């Protein structure tokens, strides 16, 4: 009789619950012949058979693999028949092109070639070398020494990839083997013809090999099975085990797309019988799992998905921990959640998620508003201050799109009331920003800028010192800095109108000042600034009546005519009305004299346009224009005054740089044109002149790649100046160009030479340690002094400061230098005119930094430094001036020195301001210290711990309100504190006392309350509580009482406690008893109905009812019945390990070796 093993385990309850009632209650006798064997129920894993011979067989295997060594050098002979030879000249055998080709092949492949001529005039080639080299050489020989033929072979398109092979390896092998070139059409080419080129012999071999590959593939079959993606893991199995077993059993290749590829198609390839068997096995697995696996979805708005997932996935983790087999997928932008897993688990998870969704929908809402992206960063606030305040105050989530999205949509999500309030506040903020972003432009005339800035920027620096709050590091000048002669007025304008006023950048050609703020404020500021400018600069504004039909002709193409008038009249502003408005009034604004001048020109031009206006054009090289205009416009003014015509030269923006336009009466235009043509002709009349220049001055003219000569050429009509070669002692300098231009250039050069002769050399002694500071970043300061004073400045070579201080060099001690004699490394040499050099020396000395000391209490140093030095850096930045670099350095002593002295180093003109700013910061810190001392007042109040939850309130609402109202910190005792009844209040004294009174008022109210117990039938508790506690909350809010229902398992399940004021408790009890009476009638009625109802099938099969003893899952011929081993413990992680879990070593068992 065969042995029988019984496995009894609680996990088989599910198996038995799935049986039909008659199967469960059937005959207990077991037919052993029908029982499955252990190997049928638990088939063993495939394993290599152990060798009976043990180590001896291993040795034999090693011996069988040993083969005699062979040489890696091989030799092959190739024969090229006469009719296929490419080079047939018998007289040049071993010479000419054929020999060159052979040498080239040997260099390319590394093989050795020997050629010989056969009797039939064929070519025999012996090739020696390594196998790869020989095969490559053979291919080269065939292609370069043998005539080529071509042929095509047609095979099915799907077989082409097998000819190519993996990474083209098969194709390369074929080409080497057959010495041919094989061309396979591209995948997008519908042709199935493969082209082969090479020798006749190679063609036949290649065709044969390709047809063999195609024939082999004809025997194979390909099947594609579409199976939903969710079932692919069951087909592959853990670590690909199931699919590997299928491939091993059937011999077919099964390709299941990986999880990252969104494809449902499974491809099976192999012999037809193998493919059919594999398809059947895959479909069987699919059908088994499809019946026990479900894919479902839950409708949920996409904006709620992140709330369903929870913070860091907490909500989802609770569900997946209970139902690990269920996969929950959220798709971005779709209003649904996809669930995949066992049918029973899916139903439970679906109900849980639906409950969460319905709860969120009932208490959540969202809103969307559109705000211009340029205001987004202002809505967010510094460090997110504004948006975080709104989030905390209204308990909402606000999503502002990043800058790169350029989106105007802002989304608010959260409590419906909070969403509406947050939306209202954000829209108010945005509207205020729109209102405050109005801007208006005010023209400021360029002719005043030079006077305003002052020589060397002196005036503007003076202004900067007046307006410390306006000048920040590398920002545009503010308008208050511009008018240095009346800063109080402009400062007052900015403050009173609450506007921002910006000037254009220094290198900009714009004359417009931008005023930003509310519309009314901007207009007020504009009016006041124009009034100041008018008062200080004698600015006037006049209106001229010119027929609107003439406006376009007066403006000219792209504004050329009107722009030329504005430039000629000192930069006045001429404003024409909008085209098509029909208004004749033209506004001219600027200095009184220039306005009058522009007015006359406009009116005369208008008269000419109305009567007999005439226009002519002529051309001249651009380099002549400066000479034609003359210095300060002198030449062109003479022509205009003498003829009465207007002459317009092209601007830098015009495409045609040679075109000159003449406007006026016909006679004036003709006369002006004649004069201009004469000037141009004289400029075209090239002459050559010679002047004498002392060789010592040659270097000045040709230095810096001839910058001085280039400037002269630009200014004087492109005159060419030639100096003798370097090293020559000749003083002969040649000038070539138009006669007038040559004369003017010669005169300018003589002026330069006169300046050079008058040059002196002056020394300025400044310690070497200050040189870098004086130079400034990239030598900017020195370059500025050089330009301002027209001098040359040379700094000495740097020397080792340590060597100088110790007087040591090469191990020898030198005598100290006399204290009177300056060190070479400290002497700065200046060259130029004496008066200019003197001014430059003063400017250099003004750049030498000095140090002052300021006494600051040591305990304030860390606040001045700030976090990671941010405070000290901010102060140094504030003390810098526009376009300047590291003007002030503040040095705080090390903490271990305990010193109160802070050093400030910088330019003398800046130190007073820096010192004042530092002392102001000290006053602020001392005031903060005093404020902190006042805020640290502390008092305690004794409150019974049972009242603490009431004082805190639901989610801390009550205590948070008290903290906010009184601006205090309230601390409750920790669980392990001795004084559990002590509440600590910290803040200003009066605020702390007020908060204590608020808490005491709550306690007094709580002490007046009473608690009473009543008996309510437990069957009506759920009805009274209501869905999600809705009913009980309504009762508590209505009667101002607290209700406590018994927990499950309580001694008296009917006992309910009511707490509150005596009169309210009585009313609440009466209300509860009335509800009990009403609900009990329904309960009794329902129970009477249930008594007459037939029991359901599910009730009959209830697993909680007592059932007969279970024999579990029974198998025959188990391994433990044939040995002394015990049955495996199904709760043991060693005998039944989970996938991926570590397995501890254990002794061998009848189950065989563990393979996990």
From TrEMBL:
Superkingdom field: Eukaryota
InterPro entries documented for this protein: KH_dom, KH_dom_type_1, KH_dom_type_1_sf, KH_Vigilin_N
Molecular function in Gene Ontology: mRNA binding
CDD domains documented for this protein: KH-I_Vigilin_rpt1, KH-I_Vigilin_rpt10, KH-I_Vigilin_rpt11, KH-I_Vigilin_rpt12, KH-I_Vigilin_rpt13, KH-I_Vigilin_rpt14, KH-I_Vigilin_rpt15, KH-I_Vigilin_rpt2
Residue intervals of the K Homology domain: 147-215, 219-287, 292-358, 363-431, 436-534, 538-607, 612-681, 685-754, 758-849, 850-923, 935-1004, 1008-1077
Keyword Transit peptide: no
Principal localisation: cytoplasm
Residue span of region Disordered: 1-56, 1098-1156
GO cellular component: cytoplasm
Location in or out of the cell: Cytoplasm
PROSITE patterns linked to this entry: KH_TYPE_1 (PS50084)
Biased composition (Polar residues): 1-11, 1120-1135
UniProt keywords, alphabetically: Cytoplasm, Repeat, RNA-binding
UniProt name for this protein: Vigilin
Organism of derivation: Electrophorus electricus
Classification of source organism: Eukaryota, Metazoa, Chordata, Craniata, Vertebrata
